[in-house]
């Protein structure tokens, strides 16, 4: 007749434990998503930096190639002729080597300031 006596009464402790476990699992999932997102951001930043480094290496190689082209003696000679410069090539016999150890030498050019 009285059904309430035969039913077991559940206390609030198991419900509290279940809620705490659910909150713990939810926090773990949120932290996992946060850390995974930061890992992906870091990977993208590393990839971007590697792309920039490769781009700069390519620019360095291109600049070195252009410098070699500009310092080519035959290209310089052609450019001087095209510009009408009075500079002309000289023979190697005219070139004078100066020994910086001999400062008393009376020559036109000097290695010592």
Which geometry do the CA atoms define? rod-shaped
**Structural class by SSE content:** mainly alpha
Number of helices: 2
Number of strands: 0
Compute the gyration radius: what is it?
42 Å
Helical content class: 55-70%
Mean pLDDT: 85
The arrangement of helices and strands along the chain is HH
Measured between the Cα atoms of the first and last residue, the distance is 122 Å
The residue ranges in which pLDDT falls below 50 over 5 or more consecutive positions are: none
Largest sheet: none
Give the amount of beta strand, in percent.
Answer: under 5%
Describe the structure concisely.
The protein is mainly α. It has helices spanning 12-70, 73-83.
Write up this protein.
The structure is a single chain. This protein has 113 residues and is mainly α. It has two helices and no strands. The chain has helices at residues 12-70, 73-83. The longest helix is centred in the middle third of the chain and has 59 residues, at 12-70. It starts with 11 loop residues before the first helix and ends in a 30-residue tail after the last helix. The mean pLDDT is 85.
Tag the structure with descriptive keywords.
113 residues, mainly alpha, 2 helices, 62% helix
